[in-house]
Amino acid sequence: MSNTQLTPGVVPGRLARGAYGDNFADMAPPLDAHEAAVAADRCYFCHDAPCTVACPTSIDVPLFIRQIATGTAEAAAKTILSQNILGGMCARVCPTETLCEEACVREAAEGKPVEIGRLQRFATDRLMAKGAMPFARAAATGRRIAVVGAGPAGLSAAHRLAMLGHDVTLYDGREKAGGLNEYGIAAYKAVDDFAQSEVAWLMQIGGITVKTGQRLGHELSLEGLSGNFDAVFLGIGLTGVNALRAEGEEKSHVRDAVDFISELRQTGDLSALPVGRDVVVIGGGMTAVDAAVQSKLLGAEHVTMVYRRGEAQMGASEYEREHAASKGVRIITGAAPVRVIGEGAVTHVEFAYTEEGPGGLTLTDHTFRLKADQVFKAIGQTLEGVPEGLHLAGRKIAVTGPGRTSVKGVWAGGDCAQGGDDLTVTAVAEGRDAAMDIHAALMGHQAGAVR
């Protein structure tokens, strides 16, 4: 590290230039062929495998691991991708430690599960490196479908619909397709521009036209889309950010963590990205962890995550919390922000300890302050610009069955729709299932056709 790390304030170049490449290298390097064979050999190939049940996309885990074990990694990849077309990214970012690997019988018996996530990456990387799309597009149906939002749910829906022979127009408000995978996850989880490589590979199915810079409620209207297409799928995600509701949160260098992560993912020079010396991240989910860890990797001297409830209630998994701690991030639980302090720019944040009671979470009179020259808000996102006519369930689009909304001919999935757990893999499953329901409705394979 260079001495510039000790510079106060929010500044770029806290580290020696060569340190950035090391800090943001692949979080979990891929298995080689021998390592994959050894890892696959640990699988019991269970009947009614609990790992498959735990996977939101229902990948046949024992089958694909057996295929790896028998030297047919490309067949394993097709097994994975037939259920989860974004299996490559999910192998990198999915919290396997709380899903398939937690359910693994090896985990229960030995405390060490089969490395399902790394084996999934081994198989999908092998196939994608060859550049070929393993699925063929069906004969054209003549039906046209609009997919709004090119994140995991939208990409999954678009691919499945195109594979079934429909013509898909995929809209997104940003400059690139990919959504969360491109803009919203830590850089060290998807190195070498993997998100864009995966999008380009997926588009080989054909039948998908991508139009960027197109936002629902701005350049696009639901009424217009419904009038011009046979069906519409909404995978618009959550674009609004909750407010702290703390005095002084408008001060300089208090910003949304999602914007920080997006900026980091899109920069071509990490040394040019300003970061504070004393960083405070407010929140307890994956976004909070990604912002905190990456602040530390950019050269912040002190990084503290503060979450209002207990550790067991944090959205970030134990694995992710331990990863943050290993990078030097301090985690404080049971405290909520009440005041951002500073003249123009933030210098401290005041917190109050919280208590859980019959009436919910309350603030106590016991407070403390943390020094901060940069604050990131990671306290959840909200749905913005809900089209007229769509019913809501709480703060998300209400859906029934595989993504059917209250508007005829309109489906929704991913983070913008009710249910789910805000995971990439769940969004993929919801996009896929909605696509199958759209296909069945359009082709008259079920009662009611397009409702």
Give a structural overview:
- With 451 residues, the chain is an alpha/beta fold.
- The protein has 3 domains: 160 residues, FAD/NAD(P)-binding domain (3-Layer(bba) Sandwich); 97 residues, Fumarate Reductase Iron-sulfur Protein, Chain B, domain 2 (Orthogonal Bundle), CATH 1.10.1060; 156 residues, FAD/NAD(P)-binding domain.
- Helix content is 33%, strand content 18%.
- Strands 3-2-1-4-17 form a 5-stranded parallel sheet, with helices on both faces. A 5-stranded parallel sheet has the order 6-13-7-8-9. The protein has a 3-stranded antiparallel sheet with strand order 10-11-12, with no helix packed on it.
- Helix 14 crosses helix 15 and helix 15 runs parallel beside helix 16.
- It is globular and about 65 Å long.
Radius of gyration: 23 Å
Distance between the termini: 61 Å
CATH homologous superfamily label of the largest domain: FAD/NAD(P)-binding domain
- How many structural domains are formed by the residues? 3
What value does the average pLDDT take? 94
Helix content: 25-40%
Quickly count the helices.
17
Number of strands: 17
Query: Which sheet architecture does the biggest sheet show?
Result: 5 strands, parallel
CATH architecture descriptor name of the largest domain: 3-Layer(bba) Sandwich
Shape field: globular
The CATH class assignment of the largest domain is: Alpha Beta
Q: Give the DSSP E fraction (strand runs of 2 or more residues).
A: 15-25%
Per the CATH scheme, the topology name of the largest domain is FAD/NAD(P)-binding domain
For the biggest β-sheet, the strand order reads 3-2-1-4-17
Contiguous runs where pLDDT drops below 50 for at least 5 residues: 447-451
